[in-house]
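Hi support team,

I'm opening this ticket because the web form for multi-chain structure prediction keeps timing out on my end. I have pasted the exact lines I submitted so you can reproduce it. The total is 412 residues across three entries, so I didn't expect it to be a heavy job. Is there a limit I'm missing, or should I split the entries? Thanks in advance, R.K.
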Amino acid sequence: MITKTILHIDMNAFFASVEQQANPNLRGKPIAVVGGGGRTVITTSSYEARAKGVKTGMAIWEGKRVCPELIIVVGDNRKYTYTSTKINEIFRSYTPEVEAFSIDESWMDVTHSLGIFGSAVNIAYQIKARIRHSFGITCSIGIAPNKLLAKLASDMQKPDGLTIIEPDNVTRVLERMPIKELCGIGKKMERHLNMMSIYTCGDMGRCDEARLTRKFGIIGKRLKEMGQGIDRSPVIQFGEADDVKSVGHSRTLERDIDDPVEIRRLLLQLSEMVGSRARRYGVSGKTIHLYVRYADFFSSWGKQTTLKNYINQSDDIYKAAISILSTVELEQPVRLLGISLSNLKHQAEQLPLFAEDRRKLEATRAMDAVNQRFGDMVVTFGSLLPGKEKAGSHVIPPSWRPDGIKNVDVKS
DNA sequence: TCTGGGGTCCTAGGACCC
DNA sequence: TCTGGGGTCCTAGGACCC
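Hello R.K., no limit was hit. The queue was backed up. Here is the completed structure from your submission:
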């Protein structure tokens, strides 16, 4: 089997770096990029802010507490999407095999490009230089024989790092690497593994497969492989990815509400957002999911219903959401409302008769292709954009899972 | 003054059909 | 009277990712 060479590129503090580049006054200063609403959190902070203890997910006041001079910047998705698209174009000048994992992370399979560009390290340095030159921002790059390890490697040196995990060095690197550093091992999984005295990738790779399988079911085999640094998942290039599976929007309200009229108005807005995006994607769906988070933050519920017909019109979505709502009694004022449409199918598209319309359709398709990959309400025709639509903290959906398996049924 | 928003995938358990 | 097993579709909820 031929050994692959995979790069994982992770833009450093991406949103914050883009903002600092756009506004020289922000350079060298602690800044935090936040969402548009009142109850928002820090999406990204600059390294200057991180040095003071500012972390992603903090409320603004928390950030200000640990770093009083913190500058708050409301994020602008269009800037990030534009930059991200351009950066991915740079990647594609080395190989068509580029997979965008999120707005600021991509993998490249450069196995077949080495003959042209010399070496992976060479490619990595070129990429770093081009991104720095064109956008003034830095990235960390990992080079390894597969995606799992490349992502691990890019995390090992930040910012502006370059880390190589050679095939014959994998075992040594993983031996003392904490399991939670692997993409796919979250908090819960870490805890369960720790209870089995598994702390490092080395531990996990050596663990008896049957023991892991007894505890975690079918994912046990995969865990052992991850511990050994094995990952066979391919780099899935743009356009080859599976179709979108669901389209949803949610809003945390400026203040908790319990007025039914206000709730319905918000549901209508959300329905319009979901519907317009579904239509732009060219999909309709028959399952509508309504979710509510109550004022106390901790209690929430979700309820879904599956219709006989596929829909993507805003008012149909709204009606379905309302009918779900009518089956429940709200127990508290509402903090967050969300609607998502799933069970999707592509609509048969009628080719427009006139050339001008066909061109417009092509443009829409191109736009959708970007939107599908790079979030919502970002690239859109000016006329479609409601003036009040604020830049939020939307991020690009991740599309990769280690062998598509994530959840586990833990037998205790 | 608490704690965003966008996704994917997986499992359990029930309904229903053959 | 009691009984099986397989398959599909659906809802609910959780883990994980950026």
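A quick check on our side: The first helix of chain A runs from residue 14 to 22. Let us know if the file doesn't open in your viewer.
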